[in-house]
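Might I ask for a little of your time on a matter of protein folding? What I wish to show you is a protein chain and, alongside it, a tokenised description of its three-dimensional fold. I should value your view on which stretches of the chain appear to form regular backbone elements. You will find the record immediately after this paragraph:
***
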Amino acid sequence: MQHNHIQEASIMKMLIGLFAFAVIIGVGMASYSYGAGDMAAPSTQTVNGDLLKIDGEFYVVKDMTGKEIRLHVDKTTVMDGAIKAGDKLEAQATEKNHAASIKHVQPKM
């Protein structure tokens, strides 16, 4: 009877240890994935205005308040058709003014 009790206590200690290990790993992975989610989805802003000029990889846009904004455009930018100087556009840009997408907007008549 004593031998059985020692085996049960040993199994119980092993199960508690495995449970504690699983909890620590779970908490660590949850905080790691939470931090990665913040980095993967930078906040964006919508820029509406007139395209003044294209300067290499930068589109200079005059927004509705009259402020000029330089948007960085590269191969990752989703372009909705051909955009040229003088066009009205709407862009989704990061805080660092990288254009995630640019689309042509028809002027309101």
About this structure: Strands lie at 44-55, 58-63, 68-72, 78-80, 88-94, 99-104. The two ends are 93 Å apart (CA to CA). The chain is about 35% helix and 35% strand. Residues 1-41 form one domain.
